[in-house]
Amino acid sequence: MTETLMHRVLAATGGGRPAPEQDPAPTVEPPVGEATPAQVDAVQEYLDKHGDKFAASLPAHVPYEKFQAAVSALLPRLGRCTPASLRMALMTCARFGLVPDGYEAAIQVQGNKAVFIPTYKGYVRLMYRSGLVASVHYGLVHESDEWEVRPSAPAPDDFTLKIRPELGPEERGKALFAYAFIRTKDGARSQVVFVNRAKAAQLRDEWSYAYQLAEQDGRKDSFWHRDFDHMMLKSALKALYPSVPTSAELVALVEADDAGERGDVQIVHAPDPERAALVAEAERAHRAAEGSQETAPLPVKRSKQGRTYRGKKQRGGRKGRVS
User: Fold this and answer.
1) What is the DSSP letter of 320?
2) Distance between start and end Cα atoms, the chain
3) What is the rounded distance in angstroms from the CA atom of residue 213 to the CA atom of residue 167?
4) Which distant-in-sequence residues (6+ apart) come within 8 Å of 241 by Cβ?
5) DSSP assignment, residue 192?
6) Can you tell me the distance from the alpha carbon of 84 to that of 77, in angstroms, rounded to the nearest whole number?
């Protein structure tokens, strides 16, 4: 049998020899830890093979070189993931126009699979990118902060917050809850969404496959383990989107994020550049068709008898709109 690039990749990652052109998961979960240089090189070669697909999936405002640099920095940690899962996770990230640098998005290891994880800053980025909101406001309320919530009061008196800026992170105390709201371009404010620690823990326990897997394996290295406050803030922003103007892209991000939490396939929820282009073309054609119906008045024609008319002949030889 001829040895292909995929065979070399899987041999380096301990995945065996599958049939050509397949990306099956290895039968044995690779050990936790950084990959060897050979594994990193093999996966890098595999991803480079698909570089043109990543570049085509990225929106114009995201340079491929920036995306590629972030991916290369990840490989020592992700080199033990199956190549197919890593490619799908990175392709999902690229289609949302986010860079997996830990700021807008990250790639997490779940067992032997790579999973795309948007951060709360990634959510904020897509809210602004939608062009439907003027500003996004979010944060954590700590023990030393002064705050009041009065749901029956009109905005902005329904939620007030005073923070003592002279206090450091440790002096502010434990984060009690996260809040999020937006202001629309006409100046209106959305409702304020709150997620406290108990609610965040409930969401984690019910929906996060990554958390459950990390607990079972004793690694305790999921995002919920490493940065609970971050995930509490992200939960508030996710809970906000149903009540504010949102784009199809933002709705898709929530669906892809939820799929990752469940351990399901994510890329089916990511924007498809080819499909998006077809939809845009169809919308342009629809607008053009509608515009063609809004024609100017037909030119005035004069009959031999001196009368004028507009339009075509009606049944029986009568003219339309005689004046």
Assistant:
1) S
2) 86
3) 37
4) 123, 127, 250, 251, 254
5) P
6) 16
CA 296 and chain centroid, separation:
44
Cα-atom radius of gyration of the chain, to the nearest Å?
28
Helix ranges restricted to H, the chain: 5-12, 37-49, 51-57, 64-78, 83-95, 120-129, 169-172, 197-207, 209-217, 223-226, 228-240, 248-262, 273-293
Residue 323 has pLDDT above 80, yes or no: no
d(CA 190, CA 9): 50
Neighbours of 281 (CB within 10 A): 10
Alpha-carbon distance of 2 to 301, in angstroms, equals 79
**Contact predicate 90/54, CB 8 Å:** yes
Per-residue DSSP letter, 107: E
275: left (phi over 0), alpha (psi -120 to 50) or beta: alpha
pLDDT in tens, 287-315: 566 555 544 444 444 544 545 444 444 44
Using an 8 Å Cβ cutoff, are 94 and 54 in contact? yes
Indicate the DSSP class of residue 27: S
pLDDT digits (tens, 9 = 90+) for 153-170: 998 899 999 998 898 888
| Sign of the C-alpha dihedral computed for residues 38, 44, 47 and 48 taken in this order | negative
Whole-number pLDDT of residue 221: 87
pLDDT tens readout for residues 179-231: 999 998 888 899 999 999 999 999 999 999 989 989 998 888 899 999 999 99
Supply φ then ψ for residue 35, to 5 degrees.
-80, 160
- Cα 274–chain centre separation: 17
Mean pLDDT of 29-54: 76
**Which residue in 9, 157, 173 sits closest to 79, CA to CA?**
9
Give the contacts of 251 (CB within 8 A, at least 6 positions apart).
241
